[in-house]
Known about the structure:
Elements: E1 8-11, E2 16-23, E3 28-33, E4 41-44, H1 45-53, E5 57-60, H2 75-93, H3 104-118, H4 122-134, H5 179-193, H6 201-212, E6 214-220, E7 223-228, H7 235-245, H8 248-256, H9 258-265, E8 277-283, E9 288-289, E10 297-299, E11 302-308, E12 314-320, H10 327-338, H11 342-346, E13 361-362, E14 364-367, H12 375-383, E15 387-390, H13 400-413, H14 443-460, H15 470-475, H16 481-491, E16 496-497, H17 501-508, E17 511-517, E18 520-523, E19 526-529, H18 531-535, H19 538-545, E20 548-554, E21 561-565, E22 571-576, H20 588-634, H21 641-645, H22 648-664, H23 670-689
Parallel strand pairs: 8-14, 14-15
Antiparallel strand pairs: 1-2, 1-5, 2-3, 3-4, 6-7, 8-11, 9-10, 11-12, 13-16, 17-18, 17-20, 18-19, 19-22, 20-21, 21-22
Helix pairs in contact: 2-3, 5-6, 5-7, 8-9, 10-17, 13-14, 22-23
Amino acid sequence: MNLVVNQLFKHGNGNVIRVLHINQLANVIYVINMEGNRWCYPMQSKDLIEAIHSKEWIEVPDTYIRTVPEEQLSEKEREKRDKAWEMVTAFLQELDNEEFAFIGSYRKPAIDKVLCKYQISYNGFKALLLKYWRGGSTKNSLLPNYYKCGSTGKIRNLSGKKVGRPSKKGRDCGINVDEKVKRQFRAALNKYYYNERNNSLKFVYEMVLKDYYTVDSVNENGVSIPILDKAVPTYNQFLYWFKRLNDTKKEIIQRQGMRNYQQNHRAIIGTSTSEGWQFDSTQFDVYLVSSTNRNVIVGRPTLHMAVCAFTRMIMGFCISFESLNGYGGEMLALYNAMTSKKEFCKRYGIEIDDSEWAFGVPSKILTDQGALEGKRIEHAIEQLGIVIQQTPPYHADYKGIIEQAFEQLNVKIKPFADGVVIKGNQAKERGQKDYRLQATMTIDEFTKVVIKTVLFHNNHHVLKDYVLTEEMIELGVEKIPIKLWDYYVNHYKGSVRILPEELIRINLLPTDTGTLTARGVSFKKMLYASPELLAAGHMVEARVNGSKKVKICYNPLDISEIYMYAEGGQLQKLTLLEHLVAYKGKGLDEVTALKEYEQDKDRKNKEQELQAKMKLYEELEEIVNMAREESAAERDPNLSKAQRIRGIKDNQQVERMLQREILREPKVEEPEELVDEFDEFAIFRGEMNE
Length: 690
């Protein structure tokens, strides 16, 4: 073992020494005791080394060297230090060899010269030298120990006389704060301060006086008015002891709640970087419109997203109107993350290669409570061999990587989007426009914006705070998600797996029940069919034997296609019928919103139809009543029923001729002449009948 100057060693009896000088030729070292008033003394280096090997002496860390920034020193401290340094330097300059400072016969003459020059006592200069050596032989070791002066942090023993600086003019002098007064302060804080009412400290102090320092009361107009004692603690005293007695953690939890403490005030140690994915969802602060009718505002979309914790790559996402913990949105986001995104991006007019957006199945997923819960999800996850780890409540920092990814999307998208939420839940100011009415993007357009942003993040965003390992630095790995991913898959074997897309689809896509009918498979009032379904005769069978229920799975973001479970568990693809092409490429939520809009419009039209029908009925009744009155007035009571019924066909022929004449010559006077001729003809016909 090699000894080094300034090393500290501790003996079993508690004695601590510092090595000051080493004479390699004589195998002698000079040491000094860190306590007491003894001069430094020599030791055989081999003896110390043997004692160290036998654990009689053990090396200890240096806690004696004082490090203070120069700007934190007062002028007086600098002055005293520099004066002491000048004397120590003069002493060392009087010696021909550094080792002579530790030998008494050489040290004494040099000390005498310093004492004569600076007019300082022997004991005073000895104390300076010991302080200098014990402090590591540095300049700052000669600083005065003002920080040890006084009773900082110590509670004074109180007598009857008031301690502290007397108050001006003898007013508000306060009292000595003993244990009794402290208990009063604590009780008042627990009763009035540590609660959800958020009372001020001034109010708590006043309640202390009311509860503990009232000596009497007077009655004024039936109200008891308390009278304070002359000797009461001052507000400054209460404030001083509040700062000493207050538990900051308790204050935040009791006044603002545990959730606020865990999210905003709890100490954060470490990093959330690890293998596996982080998964979460958030409601994006942008209002969207329907892609079929832009007059229909469909609200704010929910963004479900998965991020690789090691590489910071956004693996996949789902934008829908599902709830934050909705099964459909979560499963679609995972399905998107675990499969190729080429077809997904192509649907929105974006051509990519698999190298631009990685995919795979992780070994574990970190998420918060509420997400990825339930038997349905647990079964799907287990089938894919994924372990779900959940964070405790109110610990968003445990998955800070995905929270930061959400923030990055917000920063890049919101400045360009319309219908962005302004001021959150705060009340709208007078004259301020309703941001919901500014919405212009459909869910497809918004999805396209998010895809573009994610591609930029994965392929170009520089992670300036990412900490590279030594191996990554040697290999020249860039702090870009796609570059980190290449390193990750090559050096962490087994962390990412590739599974058949059909297997992922079967386990992750939401399932439901459809109805097999003669017209196809009915699902959500939509009809689907396929050549295979028609060739198998299932639709003919349904027409003959009646419809039946079938199990299907579907993509809520695009209901142009559904998958029916055929025999053997295989999935059979069914497409939307041609007469429903208006709903092609639409998501389930969007179609539902559109159908609700159509139903609402039909309901309003039905109300108008009913109102018009009432008017029609009224007009019909009026015409019929007028006909009844005229018929009753012109009816011949002498004609029998048989006479009225006889000759209906002839009467019809005469009426036909009359109507033809009216259509041929539509003159005002002609109908009267024709009526007269008709009457004459009728009279003639009656005479003939007789």
